[in-house]
Amino acid sequence: MAFTPTLTYKGKPLVRCGKDIYYGSMSDPYVVYLQVLTTRKENNVDVADKVHIVLLSTDESKPLPERVVRQANKSGGLFNALEFGNIMLRSKLKGEKK
């Protein structure tokens, strides 16, 4: 049975485990890995502050260090990091189709 994600962002699946988030489909050539580095309190709720973003190749024949395509850090919350990751992913997937 195929996995059906319950969370999506701009049509791509979001899978979260603790402070790690994967964005994109493993059937695509690339996905985005987001790691929440720091959080801050907002109305007594922890929200992401600084996030590390990694654009990864899904080619499992490569060792992990070679699968890292691009990395960045974003401050200002999860939305900013997710939007930046979405831009990285879209541009790389568009470049693959040419």
Name the average pLDDT. Answer: 90
N- and C-termini, Cα separation = 32 Å
What percent of residues adopt helix (DSSP H or I)? 10-25%
Strand order of the main beta sheet, please? 1-2-3-4-5-6
Unreliable spans are none
Specify the biggest β-sheet.
6 strands, antiparallel
Q: What is the string of helix and strand elements?
A: EEEEEHEH
**Structure class:** alpha+beta
Q: How many strands? A: 6
Strand content: over 45%
Rg is 14 Å
The outline comes out as globular
Give the number of helices. 2
Compact summary:
By secondary structure, the chain is of the alpha+beta class. The chain is 24% helix and 47% strand. The model has no long low-confidence stretch (mean pLDDT 90).
What are its keywords?
alpha+beta, 6-stranded antiparallel sheet, 6 strands, single chain, globular, 98 residues, 2 helices
Structure overview:
- The chain has helices at 64-67, 78-97, and strands at residues 8-9, 12-17, 20-23, 30-42, 45-57, 68-75.
- With 98 residues, it is an alpha+beta fold.
- A hairpin with a 2-residue loop joins β2 and β3.
- The protein has a six-stranded antiparallel β-sheet with strand order 1-2-3-4-5-6.
Q: What is the strand and helix layout of this fold?
A:
Layout: E1 8-9, E2 12-17, E3 20-23, E4 30-42, E5 45-57, H1 64-67, E6 68-75, H2 78-97
Antiparallel strand pairs: 1-2, 2-3, 3-4, 4-5, 5-6
